[in-house]
Design brief:
The radius of gyration is 28 Å and the shape is flat. The protein has 3 domains: 4-144, Four Helix Bundle (Hemerythrin (Met), subunit A) (Up-down Bundle); 161-263, Helix Hairpins (Orthogonal Bundle); 279-344. By secondary structure, it is mainly α. Helix content is 65%, strand content 4%. The protein has a two-stranded antiparallel ribbon. A two-stranded antiparallel ribbon has the order 3-4. The chain has 13 helices and 4 strands.
């Protein structure tokens, strides 16, 4: 998602006609509120789906080298290119934008247009295969859609909160993978009666260990000795325990993140559908405070008491912001707020409006 730092103008006063149109186009693309802007956002999503569907269908043998798929690819890539140019024109801080993930996804989406009608050559077959993979990355553009931003934000913040649980899972998987692979290699090494040698080395046995830990069990590599089967059973049981732990943590953090988004006023449920609430200054301030405190809570050196204190302070700050917003909305009009901010009290107690 594009941050507000890429907004072209912070002040809307004293803008000429060209600057106003640029700001309107920025809001049209990144903050779709009107029916037309929402329709364009939906149109881009449909084009992404069509491009991905076309890329998948053309891999079927009977559809190889059909011109219709190249035409669809060209039209979709052309639309993506127009969108990319418009985005690049309306934003500011281009150097920072070039380093963002959103720019990378948009740029990758338009690369295939330069190779659609190229003649296949054996010397460049690897390049063309790589470009076909890049085309399928367009599906990630769906997450950059404004209507999907709330889902990506929920997922991202949930993963950030669960990072330590995921790290623990990876460490435990690596430990069990090395341990079980070493034992199975010693028990099953050597050439079998059919001439195969599935456990030729410990690194090769890593594949069997990962498949067993995740309880997938493809069955292409398996032990045949009694001790090897016993170790496999223990590995599967340990895998179930290791995989179950972070799933519980992630689900708990997702529920907590959902509640936090509702408390911040960022989402609401209307007609059984999830909707994004229009951002206000109060909501933005809540989001900044919460994100900052979450980063602090994720520090390794914090004690449990310090974590509880920070969480308590965060809850108090959000409650106070809600109270201030309620008082401001109920008792003070926007015109009066402007007068109060711009007012100065002289020594005699009189109020002079600046």
């Amino acid at each position: 998602m594009v941050n507000s730092i890429f907004r072209p103008y912070s002040e809307i006063n004293n803008l000429n006609w060209r600057q106003k149109k640029r700001l309107e186009l920025y809001d049209f693309i990144y903050n779709p509120n009107s029916c037309l802007s929402k329709g364009c956002s939906l149109f881009i999503t449909i084009v992404i789906v069509i491009a991905i569907t076309s890329s998948c269908l053309e891999t079927i043998k009977i559809f190889h080298d059909l011109l219709i798929f190249k035409i669809i690819e060209f039209i979709c890539s052309l639309i993506f290119m127009i969108e990319y140019i418009l985005k690049f024109c309306v934003i500011t801080n281009h150097n920072k934008y070039l380093k963002t993930c959103a720019h990378f996804i948009d740029f990758v989406s338009i690369i295939p247009i330069f190779f659609i009608f190229s003649i296949n050559n054996n010397d460049f077959s690897g390049i063309f295969s790589f470009l076909k993979i890049l085309k399928l990355l367009r599906i990630v553009k769906v997450l950059s859609n404004k209507s999907m931003s709330i889902y990506s934000n929920l997922l991202l913040e949930t993963m950030i909160k669960s990072i330590y649980g995921l790290k623990l899972m990876v460490i435990l998987i690596v430990i069990i993978m090395i341990f079980s692979s070493s034992i199975i290699y010693e028990l099953e090494k050597g050439v079998r009666v059919d001439g195969s040698e599935p456990f030729s080395s410990i690194p090769v046995t890593f594949y069997w260990s990962i498949v067993t830990i995740t309880t997938v069990g493809y069955g292409d590599i398996y032990p045949i000795t009694d001790l090897g089967r016993f170790v496999s059973c223990l590995t599967m049981i340990m895998g179930l325990i290791i995989i179950a732990l972070p799933i519980t943590i992630i689900s708990k953090n997702f529920s907590r993140t959902w509640d936090e988004f509702e408390n911040r006023g960022l989402i609401k449920i209307k007609n059984k559908c999830l909707e994004t609430v229009k951002c206000t200054d109060s909501n933005n301030l809540k989001l900044i405070l919460s994100s900052h405190c979450i980063r602090i809570l994720n520090l390794n050196k914090l004690s449990e008491v310090e974590r509880l204190i920070i969480q308590s302070l965060l809850d108090q700050m959000i409650d106070n912001l809600d109270l201030i917003s309620k008082i401001r909305g109920n008792y003070i009009s926007s015109e009066m707020m402007i007068e109060i901010v711009n007012a100065s009290i002289d020594i005699d107690g009189k109020i002079d409006i600046v």
